[in-house]
Amino acid sequence: MYRFLLTRQWVILTLVALLLIPTMIRLGIWQMHRYEERSARNQLVSDALHAKPVPVEELTSAGHTVTTHDRYRTVTAKGHFDTEDEVVVRRRTNSDDEVGYHVLTPFVLTDGKVVLVNRGWIPSDGPSQTTFPKVPAPPSGQVTIQGRLMPDETTAASGIKDLKGLPDRQIMLINSEEQARRLHAEVLGGYLQQTAPEPKGDTPEQISDPGKEDAPLNYAYMIQWWLFAAGVPYGWWVLVRRERRDRAEKAAEEQAAETGEPAAV
Q: What is stated as this protein's family in its record (predicted)?
């Protein structure tokens, strides 16, 4: 009755089905791991954003590497902006995907140490980007600022090439070690994305909160792959039943033709 399963066509189909089942299960497990990783990262970001603000010196120091746990932590700093050593970071986009600059201003703390502050985004003056753009001034005098602590940028992490020979006071990556050499100062590791006080006239345009990774999408893919894995044997059995019925009907028709009697339904 099921001897057709030994034919070349059905042997190949069965082997493919047997291969698809563990493959789809493994893909579902991979999506499960992706869901867990993304959920964990989302939780880290949420915890950091909602943690109580602390002085920046409590979380970083000169030469310190900002950890994933401390990334996005809200920190405060008291001192003054050093606009003379201000630089801009090229090829940065705002929330509308417009290309411009990030404004990076050294902030001198009361003890003389420096923390780099990303004050936000400004548009480029023109297509050439060879001259230093017009940058809105920060608050003058002694101020207290607040921002999100960020790790130093690297080419490996960001995919941005650290190009050389750029126009004066323009950089590609925000890196505290490089800026320490340029400023000849003790610069704290990482930098701040300023959130307060808000700029007058909404410029520079402050960087928005980090969005959440779409972990539920990976969860949906996980369920999808496992449903596919469960559907393979069911689909294989449906095809087997259909093939058996078709062969039975064909055999009945051939027998009826030989005996001259109508085929049984």
A: Belongs to the SURF1 family.
